[in-house]
Specification:
Structural class: alpha+beta
Helix content: 40-55%
Strand order of the largest sheet: 4-6-5-3-7-8-9
Distance between the termini: 63 Å
Strand content: 15-25%
Number of helices: 10
Radius of gyration: 23 Å
Largest sheet: 7 strands, mixed
CATH architecture of the largest domain: 3-Layer(aba) Sandwich
Shape: elongated
Length: 254
Amino acid sequence: MGLIFIRVVIIFSATLLVMRLMGKRQIGEMQPYELVITLIIADLACIPMGDTSIPLLYGVVAILTVYLLHQIICLIDLNFSKAKALISGAPSIVLNKNGIDDTQLKKNNLDVSSIVLACNHLSQSYTGALIVVCKTNPLEQIIQTGDMFESDINSQLLETIFFKNTPLHDGAVVIKDNKILAARCILPVSKNNNIPASMGLRHRSAIGITETTDAISVIVSEQTGKISVVKQGLVRHGISIDELQTYLDKEFNS
């Protein structure tokens, strides 16, 4: 038992050191190849920890080898533009010398349909939800209060997050740059005394975040199934699915 403990401590320390040398603190900061390398390192770390017949040195050497590979890829990524586009992808430029590129701009538009579809299903099942969509304010402090990840907007993912039996269903989902960045986020609660008593903590939180930022909040009530949107502290209560689609398109895609 003591030997296993020592092996785990050594492998964990080596893995942590390598991850810090890579200079990454969270998944959202990683390029795709860095995420792949992280997953490989995790698998390599598990092998010598679980099998004491494998020399510990083999595990450490394997992890350091993958780190060396990471450094080589980073150098290629930094010094060769064509390789950078292949490895990390090309940036989406919406403003060029000719003005705004409408084609690129449309590609970066908010995926309103997925949000609306999720809200429709959540409303029908009386599942509570709170979605905050960023505009110019990044909401970094809010994002850090939740479980951070980065995913394309997907109606099934949103429905799964807010499903009552999942650990992520409490709190808010934050969307920025057409990506789901975090779930289970804690929002500031509005102190406005004029808010009706019928509006619970979810609505008060949705109002609170829009009082101090330019974000838009979308709420689904678990009591009534009604959908509401909030902007600058003002609530539009009980809107239809079509109205939600039109509202979000106007705010983010027009």
